[in-house]
Specification:
The protein has 688 residues and is mostly helical. It folds into 5 domains: 183 residues, no CATH class; 66 residues, Serine Threonine Protein Phosphatase 5, Tetratricopeptide repeat (Alpha Horseshoe); 124 residues, Ankyrin repeat-containing domain (Serine Threonine Protein Phosphatase 5, Tetratricopeptide repeat, Alpha Horseshoe); 87 residues, Alpha Horseshoe (Serine Threonine Protein Phosphatase 5, Tetratricopeptide repeat); 198 residues, no CATH class. Helices cover 57% and strands 1% of the residues. The strands form 2 sheets. A two-stranded antiparallel sheet has the order 1-2. A two-stranded antiparallel sheet has the order 3-4. Strand 1 and strand 2 form a beta hairpin. Helix 6 runs parallel beside helix 9, helix 22 runs parallel beside helix 30 and helix 27 packs antiparallel against helix 28. The longest helix is centred in the last third of the chain and has 41 residues. It is found in: Membrane. It is a multi-pass membrane protein. Keywords: ANK repeat, Membrane, Repeat, Transmembrane, Transmembrane helix.
Length: 688
């Protein structure tokens, strides 16, 4: 059985002559430390074997209540029982420990098929009990019987060593390998023990198993895993250290593919790479000028090691034709894409079985970071207009996906051609026109923004009639008339629901402003003349009153409009008009309400807490910023492509006009309120 096995045999021989003999290997384990047996209330020291603390209930008498017949392993309750007395009685009560399971008792037979006593000791992490059991079995039946029992598997084909690895007990693994070094060669469901340890991240246990395998072990089956994987497939998911360790054990593991054709490199690039700098740094081109040796120090991941071991695996596809670069793009791993393109730049233009490059799949799977990285890397210019088997470029796919951020990044790159046609003869603008949904929708939805942006930068339709593009040609078919009727029903229901939602806000604003104006004004009232506001005549009071009145008028008008837009008997065009006007009025009333709140707080707090009043006035506009955040974000997103395609002097008037019109539309109440307040102040001064 080898030197290690002989050492256990020598231990058994020495133990027969000296019951207190402790082998050297046990001295390095946690076994040697005194342990408390919760069942017997004893503190046992292996160096003396005899309990140092007697049972407080029964003196030295051991009280383990088990039946005289064989017991099932689940009845042993090994948890908390660790002393030699418990182990001795459990050993006596499990006479089938080294023999076949009892056939007469069906329940007991099935239980022994499921778990043996040694399995339960290993699963519960009871190292001391396991040591006592294998020692007693070895003293009675010899080392061969111990090895036979340890190699028995339960119904899941697991030995006690499998369970010790699963719980991550390295001392128990070391003990079992000391008893039987060949135990590490028993696979479980086509999964070697080294693979099991590596897959669970137990680096020290995996090293123990590798050291115990010896020269006689099958070099490939020792690292095999399920589905044709090997230990390196699992190691790359646990970082650089584990990967380096497995690569040092066996050369050639990086070239082995699983049953899906995936190599360890496919696995490595599919997970996040640990970096010592923020991951967004890898999006920019300056990192390309940094020496590769320094770039390796910035990433603590297995990808560099795998490419150093066998860089040709970057060009090996899986069974679906996906290269590691495609997998990294699918999972949006920008760091992995950067490493692959830095080490193996020629894999950039390779395609899968669908004719798609890594940039195509990045767009399909919404890998925004990878798309932005590729658009900023000059070497990727050659694949910007590559067409897949369907003739689609990455711009075609971005338009179909209706992802504004990816679309704008592609459009900012001037290497992207706007008017290439796919196999159906469609340009990107044709696809964008087909994406626009019929009916009444938000004007800044992505489908409409993509179409308008393409139009502004000069994209063209294919040679096709306009009615063919939109599908609006009138054939007089009854099916089309039925479809139009169904669309009208959907539009009516849509407007009714939207009107109800918006009406809640408009009524609430009207109620608040009415209460603030007539219930109790800020500052209270004067005694003489009675009912006169105390702060009347100040500019901020006039502004507060104007803001409250304007908010009430706008919200009330919006409520009336929403009543019309929510009534189904009104024609759809009229309802849409009322809804759009009401939406504008409600939005403006929110601005007025914000101004009124800020001025009201300022009037009350300014005399006693001027700083607090200023702070609240500064915080209040956050509501207006939040309301306009989405529209401003989309405005800035589309301004990038317009600037890149049209130039600064064409972009500047467009951007200035768009921002100015949006500000006037959203913030015109500021002009009205403060202009009216200033006018009222001048009148007070003239008459005062």
């Amino acid at each position: 059985m080898g030197d290690e096995a002989n050492s256990f045999v020598l231990f058994l021989n020495q133990r027969r002559s000296d019951p207190k003999y402790i082998p050297l290997i046990v001295m390095h384990l946690k076994l040697l430390k005194p342990a408390w047996c919760a069942h017997c209330k004893r503190l046992e020291d292996l160096s003396s074997v005899v309990s140092a603390t007697p049972n407080p209930n029964n003196g030295d008498e051991h009280t383990l209540s088990l039946p005289d017949d064989d017991v099932a392993p689940y009845e042993l309750a090994l948890e908390g029982r660790s002393c030699s007395k418990c182990a001795e009685e459990i050993y006596k009560k499990t006479r089938r420990l080294r023999g076949p399971a009892p056939v007469g008792n069906v329940a007991l037979f099935r239980c022994y098929q499921t778990n043996f006593p040694l399995h339960q000791a290993a699963r519960s992490g009871n190292l001391r009990m396991l040591f006592h059991l294998v020692t007693m079995l070895g003293l009675e039946a010899g080392h061969a019987s111990v090895a036979e029992v340890l190699r028995k598997t339960n119904e899941r084909q697991e030995t006690a060593l499998h369970m010790a690895i699963s719980v991550g007990d390295k001392d128990m693994v070391k003990l079992l390998l000391w008893v039987d070094p060949s135990l590490g060669q028993i696979a479980c469901r086509d999964m070697s023990l080294i693979y099991l340890a590596v897959s669970q991240g137990h680096e020290d246990i995996a090293q123990q198993l590798h050291n115990a395998s010896g020269p006689d072990a099958d070099p490939m089956s020792s690292y095999s895993g399920p589905g044709g994987q090997n230990a390196l497939h699992a190691a790359v998911l646990h970082g650089e250290v584990m990967t380096q360790m497995v690569l040092g054990w066996k050369k050639g593991l990086s070239t082995i593919k699983d049953q899906n054709g995936s190599s360890p490199l496919h696995f490595s690039v599919s997970v996040k790479q640990k970096t010592f700098i923020p991951k967004w740094c890898f999006r920019y081109t300056w990192l390309q000028n940094v020496p590769t040796s320094f770039q390796k120090k910035l990433v603590n991941g297995p990808t560099w090691s795998l490419l150093h071991d066998k860089s040709s695996m970057a060009y090996e596809p899986d069974n679906e034709g996906l290269l590691p670069l495609h997998v990294a793009a699918i999972t949006n791993q920008t760091v992995a894409v950067h490493i692959l393109l830095t080490k193996c730049l020629r894999c950039m233009g390779l395609r899968d079985s669908q004719g798609t490059t890594f940039l195509h799949v990045a767009v399909q799977y919404k890998g925004f970071s990878v798309v932005r990285y590729a658009c900023q890397r000059s070497e990727c210019a050659s694949i910007m207009n590559v067409q897949d088997n369907n003739g689609n470029t990455v711009l075609h796919l971005a338009v179909v996906a209706e992802n504004l951020r990816m679309f704008c990044n592609l459009l900012t790159n001037r290497e992207v051609s706007l008017n290439l046609r796919n196999n159906k003869g469609q340009t990107a603008l044709d696809l964008a026109a087909g994406n626009i949904r019929e009916g009444f929708f938000y004007g800044r939805n992505q489908d409409k923004l993509i179409y308008s942006t393409l139009t502004r930068v000069g994209a063209k339709h294919s040679s096709c009639r306009g009615d063919k593009l939109t599908g609006k040609q009138d054939s007089g078919d009854e099916a089309e008339q039925a479809t139009a009727g169904e669309l009208d029903k959907q539009e009516s229901a849509k407007l009714t629901d939207a009107s109800r939602t918006l009406a809640v806000g408009s009524v609430l604003i009207a109620t608040m402003t009415f209460s603030a104006t007539f219930t109790r004004l800020p500052g209270g009232y004067k005694a003489d003349p009675a009912g006169t506001p105390t702060l009347a005549g100040s500019w901020y009071f006039d502004a507060f009153v104007v803001a409250s009145a304007l908010a009430f008028i706008l919200s009330s008008a919006a409520t009336v409009g929403l009543m019309y837009s929510g009534i189904a008997m009104v024609e759809l065009p009229i309802r849409r008009k009322h809804f759009l006007v009401s939406l504008f009025l409600v939005s403006s009333s929110v601005t007025c309400l914000t101004i009124a709140l800020s001025l009201g707080v300022y009037m009350v707090l300014a005399p006693v807490a001027h700083g607090t009043a200023i702070a609240i006035c500064a915080i209040s506009p956050l509501l207006l910023i939040y309301r306009n955040e989405e529209s401003l974000q989309k405005l800035f997103a589309v301004s990038g492509p317009l600037y890149a395609r049209m130039g600064f002097w064409v972009w500047l008037p467009w951007a200035g006009r768009a921002i100015l019109l949006r500000m006037l539309k959203k913030f015109w109440p500021f002009i009205v309120i403060f202009a009216a307040a200033g006018n009222l102040r001048n009148q007070h001064q003239q008459h005062g």
